[in-house]
Amino acid sequence: PTTEPPRVVVSPLAVEDYLGELGNGYDFSWEQEFPPEYVMIHFCSAVVNHRDDPYNMEYVRQTFIDADVSIHYIIDREGVIYCYVPEDRSAWHAGKGTWLDDEKYTNKMNKYSIGIEVMAIGSQQDMSGYLHDWEYKKLDDSLKGYTEAQYEALAALVKDICERNNIPLDREHVIGHQEYSPKK
Description:
The chain is α/β, with parallel strands linked by helices and 184 residues long. It has helices spanning 57-67, 133-138, 148-165, 177-180; strands at residues 16-17, 29-31, 38-44, 73-75, 81-83, 89-91, 113-119, 174-176. The strands form 2 sheets. It has a 6-stranded mixed sheet with strand order 1-5-4-7-3-8. Strand 4 (73-75) and strand 5 (81-83) form a beta hairpin. The longest helix has 18 residues, at 148-165.
């Protein structure tokens, strides 16, 4: 008897694999135990170490490796969606936090969510834990915030994920990382 290969779940909107294994077969994920109940949105860049090229994919990849974290999807500045960890695996994106004062989610949101990173540099307040005010002010304004292409790609990806996983498409189920972990 033959066995079927494991099912890999990736949105059809993702154009290619972005990071794959991070080395030694380690991708900072584990098999998904529970059906996803939430979509968690983050923003990322390599601005701390590469102010002149904060959206370079290799620099961002190294940032993930250095922090021992992962994500299901990353949306670049042009709105291209890349898959890092398939949806049938739990990515390490949520970290420690709480949601709805429910013990089920405390420090365990990775098990219940699909994570999306949007390549962006947040507001001065968002970035205050990473950059001094004077460093933030020196950044080119075109590097800050999100692009229209990212908003469009994010909306399409969130809708796709919610429809395929029977997650309600509402603000109670599509959350920002800072809602779960306010220091983020």
